[in-house]
Amino acid sequence: MYKRGMVSFIIMICLLSISLIGCNKSVQSDNVASENTDKAKLSYQKAVELHQKGYNDEAIKAYDKAIQLNKNYAEAYVGKGALLSDLGKPEDAIDLYDKAIFANPTYANAYYEKGRDLYVMQDYNKAIEALDIAIKLNSNYSDAFFCKGVIYKELKQYDNALQAFNKVIELDERNTLAYINKTRVLQESKKYQEGIQTLDTAIELVTNDDSLYFEKARIYTLMKNFDYAIKSLAKSIELNSNNAKYAKIDEILSSLELIEEFQLLLSDVSKDNTWSFNLDDLYLNDKQVLNSSYEDIIKHFGQPIKVDSYKLRMAGTDDYNYFLNVKYESMELELFFYDKQLDEPNSKDSIKRFDVIGQNMELACGLKVGMTVDEVINKFGTREIYKLNSTTTTGHEVSAINNILTRSKPKKYYSQYNEAMYIDMDCENVKSEDVSKYMGLVLLIKDNMVDRIVLGYPNLP
Q1: Model pTM score
Q2: How far apart (Å, rounded) are the C-alpha atoms in residues 185 and 190?
Q3: In the chain, how long is the greatest CA-to-CA distance?
Q4: In which band, very low, low, confident or very high, does the pLDDT at 432 lie, cut at 50, 70 and 90?
Q5: Which among 78, 113, 138 is the end of a domain?
Q6: Is residue 24 assigned to a domain?
Q7: Which of 30, 230, 389, 402 is most buried (most C-beta within 10 Å)?
Q8: Taking residues 404-432, what's their average pLDDT?
């Protein structure tokens, strides 16, 4: 009896010890998992910061580390996917969005980003499927509805496009971009009067938006109601005098050029002292850069630090083109429209765009990185400071800024900036149909100073 009791007691002690050891291992495992999750979050936050600053290689490593520490980190998969999308690799980005969805099937942003990249790849049906899931998970996902509207507009499914833009307006009644896109759909459907009513509704809510009046002028012109067209254009110019320049090169409004009132309206505005640049103003450190050959660039500035390649779909086409971005310490030079990927430009290829990124590089007009906002205004005239990535900030200068920052660069390339100023080209000698010669300068602002200067083409498709 005693022996059996002792044996039972010993077995019980052993089992208890095993249980305690197992429990301790479980606690240790939970602690390690918690520690890894915290480290993954820190690595993810670092990746986002690096991504926003444009340090893409370092950002990818940080995203990879976050994923290594937490295999189910949906946000890290989406972050890396968005970066690869920025680099012109939408197929690789979609693979990462799918991994995010596998890790967290209820993460609406993964479906939204997937939908956007499928749209870029022109796989419209699958894009809409992904966006619909995002909306199912988040019924107030305004950006997803907006993206659906853009897709349906491109597909010329106007009823569906209107339904999507109406939903955006329902969610955010001051989203002027939604009103303008809705109006463009109605314009393409030749429902001009309904387009005017839509713009009037927007104007009641956002009374001082020049782009709404400019859009009214375009529709009235199409309706051949020239008196109202000129009145609307006059109000648009009153709110933003630069709209007089845009009216001259707008494909619809330029048809008013034979009307005396139109000529008088634009001549009055041309008397203002707002400075616009010419080609001679674009020399960098007294050297011609724009339209110079790559061979001449190397003669003047030496070998670049790095050459990056981007693959982007051209708007309104089924074609992809490659863009080469040649990086120096104080400038980035862009060559584009290659039909295949290259490691570096050919010697005779010419520079089509540039960014000034360092203080030791100055434009011939005296504009340079490091100038304060006040210095820019004192030297080049009063300028509006625009908030970027805002649905309520619209107008032709805003459109010009957005086009220059996105048309031949991956999305989010300039995402670290929240404010910008714009300087127009003197377009007196630029015809409305010759948009390839019409340029603009975007001054990206950080801490009330010019941090980067971007030259681009606001009207190219």
Answers
A1: 0.68
A2: 9
A3: 121
A4: very low
A5: 138
A6: no
A7: 230
A8: 77
